[in-house]
Amino acid sequence: MDKKNEDYSGRSIPLRSVGAGSSMGGPGKQSAFARVENSPGFSVLAYCMASISMTIVNKYIVSGSQWNMNFLYLAIQSAVCVVTVLAGKYSGFIKELGDFDWQKGKRWFPISALLVGMIYTGAKALQFLSVPVYTIFKNLTIIVIAYGEVLWFGGQVTPLTLASFGLMVLSSVIAAWSDIRAAVTGVHPAVATDAVSTLNAGYAWMGMNVICSACFVLGMRKVIKKMNFKDKDTMLYNNLLSIPILVVCSLLLEDWSSENLARNFPPETRKSLMIGIIYSGVIAIFISYCSAWCVRCTSSTTYSMVGALNKLPIAVAGLVFFDAPVTFGGVSAIGIGFVSGLVYAWAKVRQTAENKLKLPTSQPVMSASAQSSKDANA
After folding, report:
1. Contact at 8 Å (CB) between 277 and 76?
2. Tens digit of pLDDT for each residue in 242-270?
3. Based on the structure, what is the number of domains in the chain?
4. Residue 108: inside a domain
5. Nearest CA to 73 among 59, 88, 52?
6. Is residue 340 part of a domain?
7. Which of 142, 237, 267, 340 gives the lowest tally of CB atoms within 10 Å of its CB?
8. pTM value > 0.90
9. How many CA atoms lie less than 13 Å away from 113 in the CB half-sphere?
10. SS3 of 303, please?
11. Domain that holds residue 124
12. Does 308 map to a domain?
């Protein structure tokens, strides 16, 4: 599973592209929009740009020294997602989206609670860690999901996949070592006596995020099959049911005093923060659309490779837009993490090819992310 980025991509399962494969204006007379809609290059570029911008915007919002209202931020983001989805439904852009069913909502509520845990811990980890380190550690989620599927769904971990997992762990260890060393020696920009404690808090939140992300993905896969949910249903229920949880948590656990609101939304950056929050809600939906667009115009294999390759520009963007320290260890960790993603994608390609060669006397064993995608699009 390509981790969108992130936690926020987990909020919505990829949409099926509207009018996929259709020809506007007849053969040879496609409109400019139709040509773009069926362009592999544009689909890959759109997916990469959406993923990178989502991570950068999230980091910008939560990285303020006085920021402490993550629940409020995520509640607004979910609300924007729901409004965007409903606007798409009533405008005819998002089709075959049914009305909300309270009985289904009750059954789906535990999944939304796991989603809240995932996105909240992700936001906290991103608040304390640099974008490159956060991106590297997100790879560990793939390992937990893979072995979770081995235990509960009869999945399989091939030797090549295991090798990619080893590289993921190595890159995470190097990233942590480099970050802590930079903090201790004063190279880190946030030079302070509690620099290491701050990093340790980030690693703790990152560990919780890995667990929450894996539980969310595995739990969602199981419930989707039982409830026969489609892509758009999952997207709506995920965001709509997470709003009351986030609002209640914000009211109970966060400081709503005028002084604290002023610290979180200072007048000089208030407008840009609100634009960023609204943008993050809209782009979460756009990422899901671009995921389906990329798969339709290319292939699931190409999409997996793009997800692996996309880790590098996200990490580099974090170095460019924020004051993350550029060290030999950090750059090495990014490189190893990038290679681990490529090895993992190649392992998926080989495993899929081997499964196709098997006689159809039994259902083939699929890789973790391939099976999850199949279930989500069932």
Report:
1. yes
2. 999 999 999 999 999 999 998 888 888 88
3. 1
4. yes
5. 59
6. yes
7. 267
8. no
9. 7
10. helix
11. 6-20+40-376
12. yes
